[in-house]
Design a protein that fits this description.
Elements lengths: L3 E5 L24 H10 L4 E5 L5 H13 L3 E6 L8 H8 L5 E6 L12 H8 L7 E4 L6 H9 L6 E3 L13 H11 L4 E5 L17 H11 L4 E3 L12 H11 L5 H15 L3
Parallel strand pairs: 1-2, 2-3, 3-4, 4-5, 5-6, 6-7, 7-8
Helix pairs in contact: 5-6, 6-7
């Protein structure tokens, strides 16, 4: 079965730049391709998409360089300033790197109305001409403006990272479920099955904690628009790589083989043009 991990990060730890890791000691070290390659092999994952973790063009170049020497990195989701006046020029510049498949901004750290900024939407609208995707990184409480955002971009391939980070720890689901279902009515929007371990009670979760949330996204997006992702190495603060992949495999054990293959690999190939 084709299996692609659509959400992996790499970094060389910098205490000042990576201050967001202050309460996650396990992340305060270098995580490079050599660290995950044996993990992917053990879990029958043939490739991954490297996603930006820092908002600087040097990050995009860093990921592109890693991909040159590690062929299991099948694609890069980079960063440029999508609000900049010269965004088209920067997109043209980076288009020389064919490994880049899309872009992302860390919207979860921005004001709730950030996605509705005219300069930001102008930048995102330029992605289509370069055949780029856009990853939407938000918390569950940012879903209302996200719904308006996606409604304005009907032709742009979009993906919700980490199922919009629902509040699994407090078992809050109703408002998240309603808005995710509305967003899923836009056929150009996909959803990544990733990042949920860190939204639960770290080290004290059970598989059943995630099933109600998986029920919602499987029902809303269907197996044609869901993609497997690990969020490695961030996942390590709350669990192991094999635990998340095994949990999803168990959840899908009664699905048809072709549906499982879509979620674990084929949708990623199509969405990211891998």
């Amino acid at each position: 079965m084709t299996c692609i991990d659509t959400h992996v990060h790499f970094w060389k730890y910098d205490r000042k730049r990576d201050a967001w890791m202050d309460d996650m000691k396990i992340l305060q070290q270098d995580y490079i391709p050599q660290s995950i390659e044996p993990v992917l092999r053990r879990n029958d994952v043939e490739g991954c998409v490297a996603v930006q973790a820092d908002q600087a063009e040097v990050e995009t170049r860093f990921l592109c360089e890693l991909a040159k020497t590690h062929p299991f990195i099948k694609g890069v989701v980079g960063w440029i300033d999508l609000c900049a006046d010269n965004v088209e020029e920067r997109l043209q510049h980076f288009s020389e790197h064919t490994i880049i498949k899309g872009y992302r901004h860390i919207v979860q750290s921005e004001p709730n109305d950030f996605l509705l900024r005219k300069d930001f939407q102008r930048g995102v609208k330029m992605l289509k001409a370069f055949n780029y995707t856009y990853d939407i990184l938000i918390y569950h409480y940012q879903l209302r403006p996200t719904l308006e955002f996606v409604s304005r971009l009907p032709d742009q391939p979009l993906v919700i990272d980490h199922c919009a980070k629902p509040d699994i720890k407090r078992k809050e689901i109703d408002n998240w479920s309603r808005l995710m279902r509305e967003i899923a009515q836009n056929p150009n929007v996909y959803c990544k099955l990733s990042g949920l371990f860190t939204e639960a009670n770290w080290k004290a979760w059970s598989a059943g904690d995630f099933y109600p949330y998986l029920d919602v996204v499987f029902d809303a997006f269907g197996t044609d628009r869901l993609m497997y992702g690990s969020d490695w190495p961030v996942i390590l603060v709350s669990g192991m790589y094999v635990q998340w992949k095994s949990l999803l495999e168990k959840y899908m054990e009664n699905y048809e083989p072709e549906e499982r293959e879509k979620v674990f690999g084929l949708n990623a190939l199509r969405f990211y043009n891998l």
